[in-house]
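The authors assume throughout that readers already know how a fold can be written as discrete tokens. A single example would do more here than another paragraph of explanation. An entry of this sort, consisting of the sequence and the corresponding backbone structure tokens, reads as follows:
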Amino acid sequence: MDIKRTYAIFLRQFYLIRDNPTRFFQMFVWITVDVILWGFMSRYIAEVAGPGFSYLPALLGAVILWNFLIRVMQGITMAFMEDSWSRNILNMFASPLSISEYIGGFVLTSIGTSILVLFFMFVLAAAFFGFTAFSYGITIVPYLIILFISGIALGILGVTVMLRLGPSAEWLVWPIPALISPFVGVTYPLSILPSWMQNIGHMLPPSYVFEGVRATMNGGVFSMGDFVIGLLLALFFVLLAYRGFVRVYRTAVRTGLIARYSAESVS
């Protein structure tokens, strides 16, 4: 793996974002709506329910963390979509780039954009509602690690789906976070879910983050055991997603699907 080639992929995405205001500001539009909407909703619920429980960290904070995971995922999938829209996929894979260098460049892009967006969300929450990351304490760091790795796994999964099914499959990628959100308990504990949904939730790394955040907000302590389980699951899904991408890529090359990728569908 050549780090210079990986960095080249990152630079390409950086220049695309820097030189196009539309690409840059679209990263902030929907998260601004989410932060403001859930912020006022959290404030309203706190007024109706009365004192005794901090709703901003439980609701608004959870939404910020969930949007961070989505931004990590989109940092990878959007980079691949840029290559797709510009019909540059075949050029990339015809170059000396290895698969790991190509995906690694997307991960670097995701690191930059997701950290920027996370900072913006906390600034926005602090400005409107007085909520800061310090509300979570130092435990926010390990939780962010799990969410970041989980986002990478979802991003690679999305890229795999698009590579296998063609550009039109991007409409199957956008709903992925929404499909898994009911199982990970973003704004509610897993205990209220049916047992079969709880079983699925316990297999998904983000559930350990949101359960841990709520436990901390309720006066509990950081659970190292749950963190390790969540981290190991996240790493497992990253390796599984990467292996799936490699397999689909090799199949696409062997069958000639890669040469027809610019078509609406390559299935």
